[in-house]
Amino acid sequence: MKDYHINIFYSEEDGGYIADIPDLKSCSAFGKTSAEALRQVEIAKRAWLEAARDEGKPIPKPKYRPVIYQTTAYASAA
Hints:
Elements: E1 7-11, E2 16-20, E3 28-31, H1 34-55, H2 67-77
Antiparallel strand pairs: 1-2, 2-3
């Protein structure tokens, strides 16, 4: 199974890094470093998935792909 795509970006306003998983609504985390944000969002992902299972909610399959990957894949296939 493919894993979920994770975005990590620096937030001037927050003074640190934000990591989010677009396929999992509202699943995000903060860290002072990008590595810390990644560790924290992995914890948030496990909690998100566990809560969805416990509540009987559907769990989306990983499908988000940033446009850059879609464009690159298209260019290399041409």
